[in-house]
Design goal:
Layout: H1 5-14, H2 19-26, H3 30-37, H4 45-55, E1 79-81, E2 88-92, E3 102-108, E4 125-132, E5 134-139, E6 143-147, E7 151-155, E8 160-163, E9 170-177
Antiparallel strand pairs: 1-2, 2-3, 3-9, 4-7, 4-9, 5-6, 5-8
């Protein structure tokens, strides 16, 4: 599933925003927003999250072709979100994102972090369970080191990011409310 750059421009225009106004709302430059809309630049996860928040749209909006109304997500039919040059892959385990909760499988390559050093926040709450490998959840005041079998739950408004300090892929399952992808 690929990022739909045309949907970004359409969403901005539908909300009556200029490129500069969107840039101001999400803390980016107008040049960057323009380049993203034209498919010239791939946004970092943090920039992408800020754009989505500024437009009040979930991340999946820019990837989803048609909403899936089924109750089951088969392992070989998951929606996968991975931005180019990213070390993180998100697999949607929820069949649709109209409910109050989102369910994700997150895989991070060994020794890698999510796409930025910047801590990020969003509304809601998230709970994660490490299936395999290791995962560090970095907060502004501390790091929490998790291993397979460990779980964590925190308000998503707490600045955070993820890092895989191990030598194998980190696989973890996350439940987030409200859905943000």
């Amino acid at each position: 599933m690929e990022f739909n750059y045309a949907k970004l421009r359409a969403a901005r225009q539908e909300q009556g925003l200029t490129i500069q106004e969107l840039a101001d709302k999400c803390g980016a430059s107008a040049s960057l927003i323009s380049q993203i809309e034209r498919g010239k630049v791939v946004p970092t996860l943090t920039v992408f999250l800020h754009v989505c928040q500024a437009l009040n749209l979930p991340m999946h909006y820019f990837f989803a072709a048609n909403p899936d109304e089924e109750l089951v997500v088969r392992k070989d039919h998951r929606k996968v979100i991975k931005l180019p040059n990213s070390h993180v892959e998100y697999q949607l385990l929820s069949p649709n994102l109209r409910g109050q909760i989102e369910f994700l499988l997150v895989e991070i390559l060994p020794g890698q972090a999510d796409d930025t050093e910047e801590l990020f926040t969003h509304s809601g709450e998230e709970c994660g369970y490490v299936l395999e490998g290791e995962l560090i959840v970095r907060f502004s005041t501390s790091d929490v080191h998790l291993e397979a079998g460990d779980s964590i739950c925190f308000p998503s408004t707490t600045p955070h990011r993820y890092h895989n300090p191990g030598t194998t892929v980190s696989r973890s399952v996350w439940a987030m409310t409200p859905p943000s992808f």
